[in-house]
Amino acid sequence: MLELAENVVYAGIALFLVVTALVLLALAGKSTWALLTDFTETPVLELLDVLLLVFIVVELLFAVRTTVEKRELIAEPFLLVGIIASIKEIVVLSVEAASAVGTGGFTDRIVEIGVLGVLVLLLGITSLLLRRKEREPDEGENQPADPETIAR
């Protein structure tokens, strides 16, 4: 009974994520259409922002699907979401920083970009370490048998 309730909750989450992704794709289409008439950085930035949000939603959908299939929570999709979200903010802040050169806000944006860059690096290293750990054989496998254990 509890497993059924869990599946219903995951199905609801997946449904909301799919609807969100479709709405975001429609917004991306609108931003793309705006590019045909407006040659400034604003529609390009809006399009990148929306597309990176689509990537985030799709990764979350993958995490939900994997959780339902394997019955375990896997960290890597969430690390990837963190990386994508940080990169999304770096892109937005970079454009804002370019227009704020010479003001006090410029320094704040550059510091935030630096912190987000370190976060991306740390999340990437964590993801790499998790992948290495998954590829390692389990402890105790492929080791010679202990003579004392055999004698018993």
From TrEMBL:
This is Phosphate-starvation-inducible E. The keyword Membrane applies. It is a multi-pass membrane protein. GO terms for cellular component: plasma membrane. Keywords: Cell membrane, Membrane, Transmembrane, Transmembrane helix. The keyword Magnesium does not apply. It is found in: Cell membrane. It comes from Klenkia brasiliensis. The chain crosses the membrane at residues 7-27, 47-66, 78-98, 110-130.
